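Throughout our pipeline, every protein is held as a single compact record rather than as scattered files. The record that follows is passed on verbatim for readers who wish to inspect the format.
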Amino acid sequence: MKIYTTCYDLPLSRFIRCDVDGDYSALIIESDGPVDGETLKEAWQAIHQEYLDISGAAQDNYLLSLQTEINRLFIKRLCIVETVALSRKYRYDDAIKLLQGYGYRFPFDPNDPEAYHKDLDRVLTRSNTLVVEMEQKQSQLEALKPKGDGAKVTRGYYDQWLVALSKFSGYHINEDVTTVSRFVTILKSYITHCDQLKAQQHAGR
């Protein structure tokens, strides 16, 4: 019996069959007789450990990063809403500076009450983009994380990652020909790219 023993030659589709379905026969390359189930199970355990080693918990780190970004957007939006509400009653220079620091560089002219309140309205309208961004990231988080504590990984989980990574790479990632190690490499590149984009966005604020 000849079987796969490493992530560096195991096609991702076969890895998914093992991980999702518990079908360790996916590790068989060729066999001329009865298959030893215990041997396959041991081979899978070794491959899965190798996968954890080379991925370095990249997926979990990315999901944690997404959750952190969602929290940041929520706090920013809440701060803007509360500051606008306060500024409708009283005009504090520190509050106006806070709004302008967030990029809402309107006049906020206290000598023109009508224009002043219109500027505050514009702040709220534009801050709705934060809500949209937060909802998009929340949807992505829900799609990419396994459901519930200790929940079994589904094919949908891998499908979501493959869609995201295919868009990032600019070509369809074929799980039948892409090895597990190659999948991890693309995943790490994607996460690095996302981290760089976040750093650039924060630097511009």
In short: The helical segments are 12-21, 37-55, 58-89, 93-101, 113-144, 155-169, 180-203. Residues 1-55+146-205 form one domain. The chain has a mean pLDDT of 88. The first strand starts at residue 2 and ends at 3.
